[in-house]
Amino acid sequence: MFNEKILNRFKNSTQIAVLTGAGISAESGVPTFRGKDGLWNNYDPQQLASPQALSQMPETFWEFYNWRRKKLLGVKPNLGHYALVDMEKLFDDFALITQNVDNLHREAGNTNIYELHGNIARTRCEDCQTFIDQPMSFTLDEKVPRCPHCSGLLRPDVVLFGEMLPQKAFRDAQEASATCEIFLSIGTSSLVEPAASLPYIAKANGAFLLEINPEKTPLSASADEVVQGKAGEVLPNLVIQIEKLK
Ligand code: BV8
Ligand code: ZN
């Protein structure tokens, strides 16, 4: 599964950057966005995951996000998530950059996490930006939750299409991508910008680019190595091989 070229790189490196997408949560039962049973097959992302949807059709917007949250209740990290927790312990400098909003990397126990697209478990006010302590299991009795401070529209703390990414998280992710020795892209279709630009920053700075994904993506041709497989199977194996090198 891992050739000498890959294992030698891990043996001689201390700085690792990892970018994950929805694919790493697929084995936890969380639907991906663009797969066969993907979320976007039934909904148009530009329609629903957008600030326009929040302001023009808040009931539908919240119906979608409540449905997303309810699907996450009881969902647990899988072996792929836990392998990244073990991997973080094996390297002095390990950055986990995620596009996922499902909170599973935090739950698994990684510490150095950059959440580029926010976190669906958090809620904030669209007007006064206050964070509302609204646990995931919060079932809204009113259709559209309002801010207790200013009666503004509440929204999940996720980055909607057309919105800027959280500046510090993205800046830190760019820095980690520009300085790492190995960049791992795991479970992402590499379509959404500006996250999809990070592996190219790493490659331009001399990093070894490894993609782990069951199917080819627009990134595959630029990767130094591609391991085609599921995160929950490939990552635990990779960690075992790396531990043997240490
Ligand atoms: C911005 C949060 C501008 C909400 C999300 C035209 C061309 C290029 C770009 C654009 C364009 N038109 C618009 C844009 C910009 C747009 C964009 O990139 N659109 C794309 C779709 C064309 N980007 C934005 O709008 C961003 N903002 O650009 O702002 C700006 C600039 C300055 C000032 C102001 C504004 C904001 C992007 C963030 C949007 N929010 N999510 C929510 O979740 O509801 S994006 C959404 O897609 C998720 O966050 C998700 O993480 C992300 C990426 O998807 P993936 O994670 O890759 O998931 P996907 O299903 O696609 O793929 C899964 C992969 O897993 C597959 O490859 C599959 O094979 C694999 N897999 C399956 N099973 C497994 C597996 N892998 C491993 N193991 C398995 N078992
Ligand atoms: Zn408010």
Gist of the model:
With 246 residues, the chain is α/β, with parallel strands linked by helices.
Structural class: alpha/beta
Mean pLDDT: 92
The proportion of residues forming helix, as a percent range, comes to 25-40%
Bound compounds: ligand BV8, zinc ion
Count all strands and give the number. Answer: 9
Largest sheet: spatial strand order? 3-2-1-7-8-9
* Main pleated-sheet profile: 6 strands, parallel
Total of helices: 11
Note the main attributes of this structure.
single chain; alpha/beta; 11 helices; binds ligand BV8; 246 residues; six-stranded parallel β-sheet; three-stranded antiparallel β-sheet; binds zinc ion; 17% strand; 38% helix; 9 strands
General description of the model:
- The protein is an alpha/beta fold and about 250 residues long.
- It has helices spanning about 5-10, 25, 40, 45-50, 50-55, 60-70, 80-90, 105-110, 165-180, 200-205, 230-245, and strands at about 15-20, 95-100, 115, 120-125, 130, 155-160, 180-185, 210, 225.
- Zinc ion binds near residues 125, 128, 130, 150 and 152.
Helix-strand layout with pairing:
Layout: H1 4-11, E1 15-20, H2 23-26, H3 39-42, H4 45-48, H5 51-56, H6 58-72, H7 79-90, E2 93-98, H8 104-108, E3 113-115, E4 118-125, E5 131-132, E6 154-158, H9 167-179, E7 182-186, H10 198-204, E8 208-212, E9 225-227, H11 231-245
Parallel strand pairs: 1-2, 1-7, 2-3, 7-8, 8-9
Antiparallel strand pairs: 4-5, 4-6
Helix pairs in contact: 7-11, 9-10
